[in-house]
Amino acid sequence: MSDRPTKMTDAERDAALATVSGWVYDADEKAIKKTFQFADFSEAWGFMNRAALLAEKMDHHPEWFNVYNRVEVKMTTHDADGVTTLDFQMATAMDGFAA
Amino acid sequence: MSDRPTKMTDAERDAALATVSGWVYDADEKAIKKTFQFADFSEAWGFMNRAALLAEKMDHHPEWFNVYNRVEVKMTTHDADGVTTLDFQMATAMDGFAA
Q1: Where are the transmembrane segments (chains A, B) (predicted)?
Q2: Which of A8, A36, B18, B21, CA to CA, is 20 to 30 A from B86?
Q3: Hey, is the C-beta of A75 within 8 angstroms of any chain B C-beta?
Q4: How far apart are CA A70 and CA A77, in angstroms?
Q5: Candidates B63, B71, B73, B90, partner chain A, best to mutate (most A CBs within 10 A)
Q6: Of B61, B62, B66, Cβ closest to residue A64
């Protein structure tokens, strides 16, 4: 994709964080993070598959860890050296997939 | 599943490690580990999906981390407090999926 977004300001990021649920900003990692908990692996994997399809479509991929029903997600935009609107697009979509 | 296997002896584990490719034993974590590298996310996700289906079928799930084309896998059998033949069944299958 062309016209990739640039790093958000702290104020922009804080405003965006207020629009999603359970995501926190990690200043050391310059990333937003959330741990999702599901009933079992099948539910967790369904969630991850939906997120994977969107990530591939957006060409913007998470760093994530899974064990059984738990999925720990980290989103950052390496090109921008920080968090951008792309990360919040993924965060919002993931909240929807997990709902 | 009934009749879950028990923890392998060190000798059994070493013998099994010699039958798989690139897996190492981590004594602190009582687990076998391997990092898989693929051409891109699509390939990595294809691999993970095949492994996920088998894991669910076996009721034996990995701990794994993914970022883009890289998948870091850890297999252990918590019930047995160590590595069992189940872990090597998954390791062997994953090597096949990645081939």
Answers
A1: none
A2: A36
A3: no
A4: 23
A5: B63
A6: B66
Q: Give the pair of three-digit tokens for residue A43.
A: 């539910």
Distance separating alpha carbons of residues B46 and B57, to the nearest angstrom:
17
pLDDT tens for chain B, 99 residues: list them. Answer: 557 899 999 999 999 999 999 999 999 999 999 999 999 999 999 999 999 999 999 999 999 999 999 999 999 999 999 999 999 999 999 999 999
Q: What is the pTM of this model?
A: 0.95
Kindly give the residue spans of alpha helices, DSSP state H, lying in B1-99: 10-17, 41-58, 85-98
Do the bridges between strand A63-67 and strand A31-37 make them parallel or antiparallel, or are there none, so unpaired? unpaired
- The CA distance from B61 to the nearest CA of chain A, in Å, is 6
- φ, ψ (nearest 5 deg) of residue A33: -135, 150
Q: Which domains does chain B have, with CATH numbers?
A: 29-98 (3.30.1360.20)
